[in-house]
Each structure stands twice: as structure tokens, then as C-alpha cells.
Amino acid sequence: MEVIHTFLNLAAPPFTFFTLLLFLPPFQFFKFFLSVLGTLFTEDVAGKVVLITGASSGIGESLAYEYAKRGASLVLAARREKSLQEVAERARDLGATDVVVVRADVSKVEDCRRIVDQAINHFGRLDHLVNNAGITAVAMLEEIEDITDFRAIMDINFWGYVYMTKFALPYLRNSNGRIIVLSSSASWLSTPRMSIYNASKAAISQFYETLRVEIGQDVGITLVTPGFIESELTQGKIMNKEGKHIVDQDMRDVQVNVIPIMNVESCAKAIVRGATRGERYVTEPTWFKVTYFWKAFCPEVLETMYRLFYISDDPREAIGKKVLDYTGVKSVLYPETVQFSTAHASIMVMDLVNTFLNNSLPGFSIHAFLAFFPVYLCYKALYYICRSVFSQDLAGKVVLITGASSGIGEHLAYEYGRRGAYLVIGARRENALREVAENAYWLGSPRAIPIRTDVSNVDDCKRLIEEAVNQFGRLDHLVLNSGVTSVSLFEDIPDVTNITPAMDINFWGMVYTTYFAAPYLRMTKGRIVVIGSSVSWLNEPRLGFYGVKYLFFVFVRVFNLRSASKAAVLSFFETLRAEFGSDIGITIVSPGLIESEMTKGKFLNQDGNIVVDQEMRDVVMSATPMESVARMAKAAVDSACRGDRNLTFPFWYEALFLIKICFREATDLFQRWFFITEPGVSAREAISKKIIDLPLLKDILWPDSIRSPKIKTN
């Protein structure tokens, strides 16, 4: 196994480079040709049925008007019925053939079922589902008074979309319809004070990227990532640190900063135009695409800019806020609809500003990148060498590890133990934890304390941190490893609420533990080590709810929810980097396939039960080489001691990231062909399963440790 991974680590980078050099130009030309065809043969939505959530204001309201102008029949849903009725009346005047209003809260699964049922009962069909409902929270993680109040962000922004899609998908299949997903550029931008919001949008994006592979061409998906658009959100309507919904325009100025706000009507028109053309992605204003480019290649640059313009002891004293207040630039950048003051910009001025940026910023960014990137790479190389020379000594440090009863967490405990660290290890299986603690002690840990913990329970997370600090008086490393994998095609899940543990453990478990640990980590200039997953960027089917934990070939069937949860984790901690600065280091580890109970076949199935299913494991993982858990643990601890920001292990997985970004459509087609079977055909007939069943292939690619279905019990 080590020889295979060494070969791939050496061969994958040059192979990827030559693949991009050879195939990227013709592939981009082909995409351009398809986009031209899309502009010539747009969908006529006249008479079609469009369901829009969050339609009482902002983007949802303007989308209703834009569809109405094109003659569509509308189903409008939101919590404010009076506002909905006003929107419905204007939509009728603009040309909507019929409008149905449904008062509902999308965070409630039964309300989502009722919305879809009323649409079908009234119209008998559904053509477009527009998932738009959302709320924003603005608060530093450490300032939040009760972290559980912020679950509402994920309940509405993520689960509301999932529930609506679950109930609408059968009808959309019948009509070869389309899902329009209002995500956000926040899914890749790490704006401080918006960690939970950013995470919810990243989860949305990853969930629908995975769903594309699962449903194929039967239902189109248009993923919309707007920047700042005039709406109630940019008027200052936020959830504050106390969990209350308020209007705070000063805090709005801090968060929007010196970024132009786009006219909502122009945005809605672009979204509907993109959807009717069958576009996979719509970003408005288009210049926001540049920020993705910089985030991907120079994340430290954006992080530094955020800390410069957004962070200060008093948010209203932030540099970005002062620039707005003292220069009068707000009158150019913000339209009148989002301001209560007399200083505002006209829609014409706003359109001119965004048009100028759309035309000039991409070219400017390319030239700046070409000039700056070589210097940036040299700086990173030198900095890496310095970190390697002055690596942290862990002897006597206090390390807390969650999910430490088996797999990666267990071997991280052993690796920290060998280096003389004091350990506090948490998991649900107490007997297994005690065995790990005893082994870590004999390997060199001065003391290892096992604490039975369920990280999905906020009180357990608080108790875990308090006991660690009470025992040792400090905390130096927090290692977040707990996770569960759900494996099922989205449409096969009978009750989607069965899969909520994937988000509760994989995301909220990490959020809760970090929330309680952050004050103690600040005191020691400590570090958070986040065990994510390569699933956060590889959209494997059946892994939509999981997110970052497995590999390119493992994403097809299982991880719809897990990929979403791990993408949320990645976004959350990327945002915390900007909030914490140099006070708390963060190392994000993205492992590929590692020997563990998960790679033995331990999954959360479609009924919400933990099972060991090695045949489904074979379907999902196929002929992917598996890495040793001991080697992975050593690499993770080495990386944390060096102070690395990110670690991908094995290294060759990074090549998959480049291929995924550059050939999204091609990789989606491959994954569907490789992992998905025709309706009515068992998943065990997938090509991925047939390949791994070839003689001797498992013996070559997989270690003996994962052959047995036996897992630890309590």
C-alpha cells in the first residue's frame, strides 16, 4: 500500500498538469459552444408552474415578478402572509397566469410537505423549484451567548432546502424540471462574524453538487451564488449574538463594507435567464467569480484583507466602516432601498459600478495574479521550511481528541501519546475509550483521561472541555475527529429527518466543542486540528450529507448529506481563521480513504440506523487505494506541529481537486456512469462494485484490517 501511494504522490501532479494542458482548451471550447446553444434555445416558462420559497421580500420577491413577466404560474411560500399576498397581487398584474400563496416555515418538514402538496393539488405539476428562503446571523463565535440559538441558521438555510427538494423531486422528474438554488458567494468567502451562515451556504452548494450526480439529466440544477444584493439582509436585518432578529445598519456597514450592492431586479433577471438557459451556475454580479479564484489560490491574502477591513475591538471602528463613513463612498456603493439615511446611490449609478467591475476586475486580477503569485509561492515555501525547522514540541502539552474510540481518532491519540502529550479523549463507547487511553499511556502519554461524550449534545461538549481544563488547567490542542457517514441515494431515504445525525455530529459537534474550547486555546496560543475529508470537494453520489471525508471515487452513492456536513465544517473553520487571527492556529486535514470503521462498511443507512454493509462499502469505495491510519495520524500531528494551514493525505488527492474544478461536467458524468445503476437495478450491480470484485484487487489496494466487518462495541 505504501508503494502504491508513493507512486501516486509522484505521478499524479505531472499527470494532472499534462491532462489540463491537453484537454482543458478543447473542453472549455466545448462548454462555450454549449453556452451559445443555450442562449439560442432557452426554455419558455409561460404556463409552467414555479414554486418559490422566501418569496415575501428581496430576491425571492423579485424572482416572482420576473417569472410573472414571462407568464408562469406561481406558488409563493414564506412566513409573512400579508407580504406574500401583496407580492402575489403584483405578480398577477405583471402577467402571472395564476398565483397560490402558502404561509409556511421551511425549517419545519411538515410545512415543506404541505407547500409541495398544495402546489400539486392546485396545478397538478411542478416545473421549477426555487429554494430561496434564508436568514443571516452576524456575530463572532466567541461573542455568541447561546450557540444553540444559531441552529436556526442551518435549519432554514440548509434543511429547508433539503426538505423542499425531497418532496418536490418526484414531480420535477415527471416534468424534467429544474431546481434553482439560492446559495451565496459566502459559500467560499470567509467573511468574519458569519461563520454559521457561511457554513450553511457551503453545505447547500455541496449538497446540490452531489445531487447533480445522483439525478443526472432528469432534473436540472442551477446553483446561484450572489454577492451583496439589495434585500432585507443588506438593509441590516440580522440575527445578533443574542439570537434575536434585529435591524442594525451600522453592523450591516461593517459586514458589507466597501463592496457595491447590486440591484435586486437585475439579479433576478440574470437568475431566471440562467435557469431558462439551463446553466449550471449563476454568479451575480459576475465580478464575484474573481473572489473564488483568489480564495482557491491565495487564501491567506483574502484572510489578511478581512482582518484589516473587518476586525477591531469595536466593530463600528473597523477600517471598512470608517472608509464608508468618512469618505461618503456609501452614496455610490449602496442603493436607496437599503438605507434609511438621505445618502444613497441611484440604481443607474449602482449598475454602472457593477458593470465597470464586471468588465475590468477579471483582467486586472489576471495581471495581478501573474505578477504576485510567483512571489507568493516563494514566500510560502520559505515559511514552510521555517515551520519545519521550528516544529512544536508536544511534551507536556494538553490535547483533547473527540471520536477517539477507533480509527483516525484512536491513532491520533497514540501519536500524541508517543510525543509525551497529556490526553483527554472523548467518544460514546466508554469501554473502547478506556482501552485507547491505556494504550496511549503505555506509548508515552504521562496521563490519558477517557470521557464518555456524545458531541451532538451541547451539554456533553461543554462538560468535556470543562473536565479537561479542571484536570490539567489548560488546553493546547483541540482535535476534532468525530463523524458518521450516511450512505444512500437522496431519493431512497424514506424520511430525511433520519439523516440529521450526519449534520448534528459532523458539523454541530465540532461547532459546540470549538465554542467552549476557544477561550482556553486563546490563553495558550493553541491549535485546532480539524479532521475533514476530501469529500468536501469531491461530489460522490450517496455521500451528499457527509461532505469531506472520503475520496473522489467514494462520493457517488453514499455521501450526499455527509459531503454537505463536511463542506460546512470546512467553511466554518476557514471563517474562524479570520476571526481568531494568530491567537489560535487551525490545521484542516482532508484525508482520502483511510483504514477505519467507516472503510470497514460502518454507515448510517437510509432508515437512520448504524449498520455494517461491506457490499455497499465496495460500491462506494471501489478500486481506490486505502492509506494506513497510522501513517495518516503521524502526518496529521506532524502538520499540526509545523503550524500548517491544510494537509491533504495522501498528497495525490490534491490532483483530484484540480481535475474536479476544471472538468466538473466530465467528472459528474463519469461518477454517474461508474457508481449509479439504472432504476430498479441493485446498487451492487454498479460498475464500481464489479471492478473491486476482480480477483486479487482488494488484496492489492486494501489492508487486511478492513476485511473483517467486526467493529468495536461498548
TrEMBL record:
<keyword id="KW-0472">Membrane</keyword>
<dbReference type="GO" id="GO:0016020">
    <property type="term" value="C:membrane"/>
</dbReference>
<comment type="similarity">
    <text>Belongs to the short-chain dehydrogenases/reductases (SDR) family.</text>
</comment>
<keyword id="KW-0812">Transmembrane</keyword>
<keyword id="KW-1133">Transmembrane helix</keyword>
<keyword id="KW-0560">Oxidoreductase</keyword>
<dbReference type="InterPro" id="IPR057326">
    <property type="entry name" value="KR_dom"/>
</dbReference>
<keyword id="KW-0735">Signal-anchor</keyword>
<feature type="transmembrane region" description="Helical">
    <location>
        <begin position="7"/>
        <end position="27"/>
    </location>
</feature>
<dbReference type="Pfam" id="PF00106">
    <property type="entry name" value="adh_short"/>
</dbReference>
<dbReference type="InterPro" id="IPR002347">
    <property type="entry name" value="SDR_fam"/>
</dbReference>
<feature type="domain" description="Ketoreductase">
    <location>
        <begin position="48"/>
        <end position="232"/>
    </location>
</feature>
<keyword id="KW-0521">NADP</keyword>
<dbReference type="GO" id="GO:0016616">
    <property type="term" value="F:oxidoreductase activity, acting on the CH-OH group of donors, NAD or NADP as acceptor"/>
</dbReference>
<dbReference type="InterPro" id="IPR020904">
    <property type="entry name" value="Sc_DH/Rdtase_CS"/>
</dbReference>
<dbReference type="InterPro" id="IPR036291">
    <property type="entry name" value="NAD(P)-bd_dom_sf"/>
</dbReference>
<protein>
    <recommendedName>
        <fullName>Ketoreductase domain-containing protein</fullName>
    </recommendedName>
</protein>
